[in-house]
């Protein structure tokens, strides 16, 4: 009994792996955003004033994949970054959709039902998106503007 309790406590104390996100411009030339999970928060940052179609790349550890922590998560999605809002095209292009459909989405929301904001998309994994997209501090790990969470 004590061993089982000790094992549970050790597992709870081990740091969880983080789901990571990198957002590239449509030509995959420039990083325009990045994010990482920490607990149930998903901290995200975007390059100031970038608007346009993007490629969204998620990465998870082999351990996370083996445990099935993010079921159904694809490694990449087409998307649109506009006014600091990231929208993902969650329907695969193989079903006749292209990034052009995402690019033509209106400013105020998704044109097609398969378009979801990053916040709504990550809710299915119990992650809450936080961040300030218009900060100007440099993060050397991503080469992007950094952000500070309120209260830190």
Describe what this molecule looks like in 3D.
Helices cover 19% and strands 34% of the residues. The chain is of the alpha+beta class and 152 residues long. The chain has an eight-stranded mixed β-sheet. The chain has a two-stranded antiparallel sheet with strand order 9-10. The longest helix is centred in the N-terminal third of the chain and has 12 residues, at 2-13. Mean pLDDT is 73; it is low at 2-15, 94-98, 101-113, 134-142 and 144-152.
Morphology: globular
Give the proportion of residues in helices: 10-25%
Biggest sheet statistics = 8 strands, mixed
Computed CA radius of gyration, to the nearest angstrom: 17 Å
Uncertain ranges: 2-15, 94-98, 101-113, 134-142, 144-152
How much is the average pLDDT? 73
Count of DSSP E strands?
10
Structural class: alpha+beta
| Strand numbers in spatial order across the main sheet | 7-6-5-4-1-2-3-8
Annotation field: number of helices: 4
What's the end-to-end separation, in Å? 40 Å
Order of helices and strands: HEEEEHEEHEHEEE
Strand residue percentage: 25-35%
Key descriptive features of the protein:
single chain; 152 residues; alpha+beta; eight-stranded mixed sheet; globular
Give a brief description.
Helix content is 19%, strand content 34%. With 152 residues, it is an alpha+beta fold.
């Amino acid at each position: 009994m004590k061993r089982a309790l000790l094992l549970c406590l050790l597992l709870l104390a081990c740091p969880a792996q983080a789901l990571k996100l990198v957002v590239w411009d449509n030509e995959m030339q420039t990083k325009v955003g990045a994010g990482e999970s920490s607990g149930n928060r998903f901290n995200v940052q975007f390059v100031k004033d970038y608007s346009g179609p993007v490629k969204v790349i998620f990465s998870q550890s082999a351990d996370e994949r083996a445990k099935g922590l993010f079921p159904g998560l694809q490694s990449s999605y087409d998307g649109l970054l506009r006014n600091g809002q990231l929208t993902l095209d969650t329907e695969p292009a193989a079903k006749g959709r292209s990034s052009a459909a995402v690019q033509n989405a209106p400013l105020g929301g998704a044109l097609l039902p398969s378009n979801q904001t990053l916040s709504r998309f990550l809710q299915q994994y119990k992650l809450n998106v936080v961040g300030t997209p218009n900060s100007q501090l440099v993060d050397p790990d991503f080469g992007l503007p950094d952000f500070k969470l309120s209260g830190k």
